[in-house]
Specification:
alpha+beta; 4-stranded mixed sheet; 41% strand
């Protein structure tokens, strides 16, 4: 592969990740930032209120930083993950999973109908995205 092609490809990949990151930042802002555990600790989870979690996994690092997310039992949970490599996002205990395309994003959705602590991770690379605390 010639140097010019490699440079264009690298810029395309970087641009795609930047667009995915900007989309997730806007999504987080639109949720009022209430999906991370700091905000959840300030107010108890409201039964039935949807929980939106959006993160970027790049180079094995999660942005925003991983933490626990409080979820009211019976709520719908939507998790959007943008990643730099092909992988799979998985919610332990619920057996909910979704393929993640390289340099793309995917969203999985489920009803949190089981109480407990549940880890959300990328399945193949083992990156912990967050822990859901369902009460």
């Amino acid at each position: 592969m010639d140097a010019c092609y490699a440079s264009r490809r690298r810029h395309l990949i970087t641009g795609t990740l930047a667009i995915a990151a900007a989309t997730l930042v806007v999504s987080l802002a639109g949720c009022g930032g209430g999906t991370r555990s700091d905000a959840a600790r300030q107010a108890p989870p409201v039964a039935g209120a949807p929980v939106e979690i959006a993160v970027i996994v790049n180079g094995g690092r999660v942005t925003p930083a991983t933490d626990r997310v409080d979820v009211a039992r019976g709520s719908t949970v939507r998790i959007t993950v943008a990643t730099d490599i092909a992988d799979e996002v998985h919610v332990h205990g619920y057996d909910v999973r979704k393929e993640l395309p390289a340099r793309g994003a995917a969203t999985l959705e489920f009803v949190a109908d089981q109480a407990g602590l549940f880890e959300v991770e990328t399945h193949r690379s083992g990156v912990v995205i967050c822990q859901l605390v369902v009460r």
